[in-house]
Queue: 4 jobs
Job 1
Amino acid sequence: MPKQRPSPETLLKRVQAEEHHQMHGKLKIYLGAAPGVGKTYAMLEEALIKRKQGIDVIVGVVESHGRQEIESLLSNLEILPRQNLEYRGQKLTEFDLDAALKRHPSIILIDEMAHTNAPNLRHGKRWQDIKELLDRGIDVYTTLNVQHIDSLNYAVQQILHIEVKETVPDFMLERGDIIELIDLPPEDLLKRLQEGKIYIPEQASLAVEHFFRKGNLSALRELALRITAERVEAQVLSYRQDLGIKHVWPTKEKLLVCVSTKYKSTRLIRTTRRMASRLKAEWLAVYVDTPELRISEEKRNGAIRNLRLAERLGAATTILIGADVGKEIMDFAREHNVTRIIIGKEIRARWRDIFFGSLADKIIRQSGEIDVYLITNEFGEIKTPAPTQAKKIPWSIYGFSILIVTAATLLDYFFSYYLHGSIAMLYLIAVTIVASFGEFGPAFFASILSILAFRFCFIAPYYCFSMKDIPSNLNLLFLFIMTQVISYLTIISRRQIKATHLAEHHTHALYMLSRQLASTRGVDNLLATAVHYIAELSDSEVIALLFENNALSIRAKSGTVAILNEKEQSIAQWVYDLGQIAGLGTDTLPLSDSIYVPLITSRKSIGILKIRPTQPKRLFTPEQMHLIESCINQIALAIEVDRSHNTENSPQTKSLP
């Protein structure tokens, strides 16, 4: 499949990224599974190559730990003097950030990104020094061990049975322009340790007992490889999007299940989960919310429940908005490099497939290099779901159709009397007006009514429905086809416009929230801003609770409810402990009158938001829920950044090697 021109949004992102790179320094991270794999050595070798090319390179801070090969490389580079400090009677030497900014080299080497600075310095962490250097246009080379990545903190603790307190937030890893994996098999690393090339003998024996075990090193190596693979996958995906490449590159298996509002989507979701488990593959669940004017609340609630099930089983869920379901699914699949699509196949009468088409058939025709799996109902499966709310018939639009066709007929009488000829195009205008309401039924009814009125009043023999005049009947047939085409295009255009408006509303809401959060400081102020914003956005009463002093306490609220009863407190605690959504519209405590959403940072849950719709028992639509979750993710990120900036850390008396 040939390359397609990138979308305007992609081009805009590319321009913004280029402007960002021009204004800020570039970050290169040498990532390793453990100390001693050669990160610092590789960084210094690269620095020497850059220096020979005439680039201004200096060493900001590099720890040699007495290794001769490191000191030999350092002797060939300019080293920035450190600043001397005294803390509790101990003399400390730290990286001199102000001296580095004054020197302003092209590239500066900063070892041990996760290091904790001494008190009374401008930043508590070395990664904050690196961030300021980047913001001031200086390129930085740094080293990092995988156990210091914030999001992996819990996994590392499970492996090593040690709490790693020096961590680097994930957004610094995401900011890295280049991540170079420095890999060494555990056997070779243990050999280097025994030869004294990592620590002195006393430290080496202690490290072997607590850290340098073959199993530990293998597990950390796997984490480092996974982090690097995810980074490379993101770069490949960005490259394909930038160049508008639509065909799939099968670098690894990725599954996509198409969720609908129907009950049987649960079988599709569980089948996809089993397939993904066997293939050790990532899987996604997507629901396309078509902007129909009268979709029932029961259907919307069904979509919400299906997506919640997919999330619990480990899928990354997405809600798309568009009038053409098949096109939205295929565009999403190619954009995310999906290799297999799982979709339900409804067994129904053949004439319905012929006249109305099938989503499964449409996806198969457009699938190209993507494999498509059809899952049908098993024999004997119950095909009658729980009672649903019947879709209301738009009788008012049918009545309007009669009125406007009557008006077109009277107007045609007027023109035929004075111009001695009828104007059939008036009926096309009438059908188009009815179709603008977005309903296929009334548009079809207006089309049939227009044909009958035109035949009865303006084609000889008049005031009867004779079918003997073949040319006139052919004209009526063509008129009917024209009215159907026009009504169909009008309805599709209206729905597409509504889908565009919903997407714009989503983007605008997130943009406005991000602006408000960016200009707000302090956790209480951030929560107050977020609570009032979400309350107005969702027409709900919102309460924000943070976990403090071993309990959840209210920190901000919008509405009349000021306290939580015992039952609500227990639900909130459950949501905080498990980090899962519960309450109204979910499978957990669905009879509650509110929905409870956790505030999750990159490390853990920090609190919850209780959202109660002002209309009792009203479930949020999929697009509303998706928007609320996006806003909550931004709130959690803003709180995490605010806390990281305001936290003062003391130096570690004993840190992990």
Job 2
Amino acid sequence: MSAIAQPVGDAATEVETSSLTDGFHLLIDALKLNGVETIYNVPGIPITDLGRYAQAQGLRVLSFRHEQHAGYAAAAAGFLTKKPGICMTVSAPGFLNGLTALAHATTNCWPMILISGSSEREIVDLQRGDYEEMDQLAIARPHCKAAYRILHAEDIGLGVARAIRAALSGRPGGVYLDIPGALLGQVMDAVEGEKSLIKVVEPNPASYPGPDAVTRAVDVLKSAKKPLIIIGKGAAYAQCDDKIRQLVETLGFPYLPMSMAKGLLPDTHPQCASAARSLVLKESDCVFLIGARLNWLLSHGQGKGWGEKGAKKFVQIDIEPIEMDSNQPIAAPLIGDIESCATALLDAIGSDWQKPSEEWTGAVRSKVETNVAKMAPRLKNNNSPMDYQGSLGVIKEAIAENPDVVLVNEGANALDQCRSIVDIHKPRKRLDVGTWGIMGIGMGSAVAAAVETGNQVLAVEGDSAFGFCGMEVETICRYKLPVCIVVMNNNGIYRGDGTNWGGGDDPSTTVFVKDSRYDLMMQAFGGVGVTVDNPDALRQAVKEAFASGQPTLINAVIAEDAGKESGNIGNLNPSSVVAQARYPQAKKI
């Protein structure tokens, strides 16, 4: 148990307080007792000293320039480690900044705890106008799995334990922990304080599917003629990589990995159907979802891309029972954790499992090979300025040569095309915008990836997405992290050649300053910054960044007209006959 820091030279006070502890140290000790090693934060009232004390007690405390990015780092840390990522913010505005990241973690089913300082209840409840007064607990509740407030020092251990268990149990998610400023200064007996701390035991025990559910699932899978597996990021989070690979290879089904599940099996695996996505989604008669949800990212399992309505049967593994039938009827739900469900299925399948016919798997493989061959020449061009294919062909090569590199990716065209072009070869080596498709996760995720894995990080950013988080390059430089950032600079959002439909002097709403030098931002903070305008130069710059391990930003000049409106989800933009008649330019986008 940590004792309170003593005033120098005051021997009487030192003796008197040596047997006491306070809220600062109880909170730090409770986190350390439960294996927390890293805190992502922005210091300020009332948590400034909390960060200092945590650092003094051996925790790594990384301070960001904005709470949202500290939160994104904590969320990514939760995904990478299966332990709650910890974000610490100041009250009110700082809390609100961190709230987006907390909701992001909950939506993605990643464990995270947002700890925020707050005003005292007696002032907030009577709305007396305290400094940064806000009922933060009430605001947080709709956006996370659980929200708790600790009012007494002797309850700190309990509060931390409840937050950890809530973040990890069942379907993981975000938890809010409210810390009124006065709590941190509360004093209690050190021995009693130590006794009040709780080490959480087995916060997320194995959850086995029922035998009838397993038998039903095997029967459905066995009856399929054209089966398909879809692997989601929940499978990557589960960290039972060998078991998932064994199940996929035993079944012999073609599979589609969702973006952050890429690498659970290498994207070059013969069963990978990513390059035949349209074919397998439309033609399959049975879809087996492993840690994936039939949400908007999969068109809710319906529409013309999914073939004839009602022609498919679905088998789904999920820890959350109410996920079943959320968009399509699930013929064989398997409720449990992925490792337990995969183990049960493998036991039930046995050694005499019949893999699907060569007619189906051969057709899928043929389509994959045809599409890969068709794309290959486009990835080898050396155009200047670059297009997305030529530049991402370089990134594809770099990841193939360095498969332990963690790829962080966000943007519109930069995201969509990178996701389809760049192969991932190992699990949890890709972090991106997640279920919400949220922009600005890049630098926070890059920091977490470097800190939590110790590996080189490559962040491929659209210039618009980079604008949400670019100031955190100072954080990357301050902590000397091995992060190489490639900003796909096409001078605008989606494209840089937009026009003002009103004909005025202002630029189009989607156009940025032409020929911006993002590389100079990195140079300003002591990192390496370079501008390139062709794939050969990009290849050399990435190699040099990996070799040096220094914070590096490559300003990659992309042709203004290389992208398209909203990337691959332009269909989500509302359309209007009246608007298109009034603005003919709309039809040309």
Job 3
Amino acid sequence: MKREIKWRVLLLAGTAALSLLYILPSLPGFDAFPSWWRRYFPHEKLNLGLDLRGGMHLVLEVQTDKAVENATERLAAEIRRVMEKEKVAFEQVSREGIDRIRIRLKDPAQRQAAEKLLADYRELERPGGTVEEILVAMGSGRSKEVRGLAVSQTLETIRNRVDQFGVAEPHIVPEGERRIVVQLPGIREPERAIKLIGQTALLEFKLLDEEDYERKLSEALQGKVPEGDQVLYQRVLDEKGNVARRVPYLVRKQAMLTGDVLTSARAQVDSEVPGRFQVGLEFDREGARIFSEVTGANVGRRLAIILDDNVYSAPVIQTKIPDGRARITGNFDEKEASLLAIVLRAGALPAPVDIIANLTVGPSLGQDSIEKGIQATILGGLLVILFMAVYYKFSGLIADFALFLNLILMMGALALLRATLTLPGIAGIVLSMGMAVDSNVLMFERIREELRLGKTVRSAIDAGYDKAFWTIWDSHVTTLITALALFLFGTGPIKGFAVTLSMGVTFNLFTALVGTKTVFDWMIRRWEIKRLSI
């Protein structure tokens, strides 16, 4: 018996000491600790949520129609290449609307050959057409799949960008069919974060239409754009970083190369312009092969480097570039070049996103929430401690010890698991404090009944714990099941409440059934108590 009590005491002391070790970095004055402490012991502070720490709350809406348009455009380009390969003559293969493709044949006699090629594309439906034209559309099932993939890919891309941006404990979750909620606690550069998250980052390399370029460009600016071409602009900035003028370019619609073959993008000093930066690019093996072929076949022509329909530069191809390297030059400073490199490394968004809600929570509001939460926790705790001490006397003080231990273990676990404490999380802590007292009330009332029956103190305590065990166990398990459901199906604030509630319930079982019982057993063995203050 004595050995068993000793091990229980060591277990309680060890868990409490470990919890305090993880709580310590979050306490005032920790910055004064010596540097060697941070090398050997935990030094990371408890993560505070957006409502406590301040930061940004964004609600984004993915333009899923644009994702379907892009998928249809790629499908049209693929059909165009297959028909050229199989020698099926056509005048035009173009996208119409969101999800339709119109194929105009040169010779109606080749319609059967074209239909045979299109039979391989099972996702296409046939809404209509004529003898010389075939009209196909993306099926509803495929369209729904593209929309879903656009949202999931956007979610993952934004998460990758935020991770590289260096935000601790971001909260990025889908909401509904097209929306994404992004919470960035402690963010200090909201404008830069919005630019990072919302930039589509579609990188394309397109050749200029240089045959009779000046005349075609002049006509295009008047609305007569040649088929297969488009007008894009380069923004020329002044010394203050404002757009001084926009230079038009007439480029081919078909991209020779896109950013999905990038393996690396990094900011580097522009050797030609002192004080300016550029973004160096490296392609994968397939991208390097395509880039080599494009530059080799078009020496002397200009190749526009385009990001989100903005021309960054249009250099003349001087020679074949076989090593798969390129660069984006512009009026960049170091921050702008680094941000662009992050966006390109993390990948392009599959569809544009609209920011439909942008809430910035200031640190003063977060500090106020912390103070109110701490005040509520302290007040609630003091009232509970006072009630237990008055109603259950010395046994109530033992229950208060278990309550205090429960709080220490909970905060230590939050710090250890790098969980985020939110205002609803504080509410979960307060609720678990009430449940901790409830467990002790059940056991103490049982002990009182056993003492009234004339049992000894030791027998009454043992019987009280044994008879109350399953009642306490059932109530805690059902609460854990509820907390699990809240965590699985709830949003961010609800999840925070569920986490602290489940932790509090778990540690309450330990402190109530092991902690207080150990104190009683130790007292009885040491002093052989004949009368219990309860």
Job 4
Amino acid sequence: MERRSPPILQADVTPDWIAAGRGLVTPFPRTATVPRIFSHWAQATPSAVAVIEDARRWTYGEIDRWSNTVAHRLRSRGLVHGCFVGVPGVRSAAFVATVLGILKAGGAYLPLALDEPEERQAQRRGVCAVVLDELPEYPGETEMSFTREASESAAPENAADSPAYVLYTSGSTGVPKGVIIPHCGIVRLVCATDYLTVERDDVFSFHSNLSFDASTFEMWAPLLNGASLVVTQTETVLSASAYAKHLQTYGITATLLTTSLFNQLVREAPSMFAGLRWLFFGGEAADAMSVRRVLEHGRPQHLVNAYGPTEATALALCHRIGEVVNDRVPIGRPIANTDAFVLNADLQPAEEGELHLGGPGLALGYVHEPQLTSERFIETPYGRLYKTGDLVRWRAGGTLDYLGRLDRQMKIRGFRIEPGEIEAALGRHPGVQQSTVVVRPAANGEPMLVGYFVGEVTAAELRNFIREHLPTHMVPAALVPLRALPLTPNGKLDLNALPAPLFERAAAILPQTASERRLAALWCELLGFEAIGVEDNFFEVGGTSLLLLRLHARIVGEFARDVRLVALLQHPTIRALALHLDTTFTPTAARASSDAQERAAKQRESVARRRLNPSRTS
């Protein structure tokens, strides 16, 4: 079925905005559930590879039997239809088999982030009927043969509009909200669609945080189309050289990256994506320069800018990029079986206005939040629509440009963040009277969160406090104390009057050892400094969660040591970390630095001695 033709927008023509916003209607299997489609492939191609984890290749038949065993165990524990089951958020074959088992048992899965503060974990666990403390191991063939018949004979008949999973997003009221996605949302995303074709020999990279909706695309696009996915470690995807090697080693043909990560990898190795069939990026406004570099140096077969909130099952609009015009990359047009209406305040179609999404990909609502659900999911003459809060404009030709937010919501490294939730966490400290949170560019150009507060508490004390209440990606890179928040003559917060953060810098003690020099060079590169002192604290000079992960990947690669990420948290200065590396680890390979690297480090040190000023801040 052909897409209804979008209008060519001309000044003397009244555009048909409704026609422009309706996606292609395709006969996708809208009554099928996720496990039913997966089991179809398991029966049709039982020996085909479904999941690749390190050197182990799990077939569709193995994953299917494993999930049957999980389903049988859950039902024996009393799981009833429609219950939420908490699952440790660890990317693995065991995770895939576990969530399939949950769905087969009639439940819905809720990924539990292992690195979140206890307070937030408790909020999620509180909505679960069952919480799995660990992922089940692969059972023996005897147990699987016993449970297969029991699982299939007693399997509840899930409906396509029943819950499949729950993901939590940042909440403007200070409390995260759980988004409930039905089976048909996932099926509509990856089956019989128009923005993506999946071949049986395609291999998808599975690397996104399981609490991030990109993982929905990464996991189900291959597994509901008979293709394969490769479990990819976070440290690998954050290093351009390591990820380029990973793509080649496993023959990966499709990957989805956050825009920030896409920009980072393109800066380091713009040609690394040349062998891909599909390269998707999204989550933030696209950077035209990065897109041009890929098109010029490493063009994949299909380069796609993707847009979609969690409430619309990961993706709602896509734009396949052939060139960049006017330094703006559109977010595209609605994918198949998705509606995208641009409406004004009176809910009338307009050229520019708030984006409203509709179709079978919409969430069922928010967990235990009927009022919020009715506010965000509204009934209109065009059907049930989700109010995105995004300001967009139609382009000539029927694609959409993203213009910004209508509220204070932010997107940082693909994560949706409500400043109100961070401000609520800051306000829980008894010494904080007022606070606000904004996004500012860091020294290296990347966006960072900056918190401003009024009260009787130091920035260091407040940082330690909110780390106990917020996940790492929501902790501000800088906390700035103020005597009072600046206001406009109308009494509103004056954002332009907020001062740039002055990061706390220690006394300028230059690197002395080889390890200190190599670490200092990495810090300067990632943080955008000309020089750094060995007693500077990574998190007090602008270090963010993404930069920490990048630093960890670089250290593992350049020092050839199997250092854990937690070691960087425990040793946040160059001096402490260098001592830890030199005294704790034995190199697992030849030393990463050659004589040329050592000479280069000494040259950088010489430049630093000329430039470093003890009183300087950044």
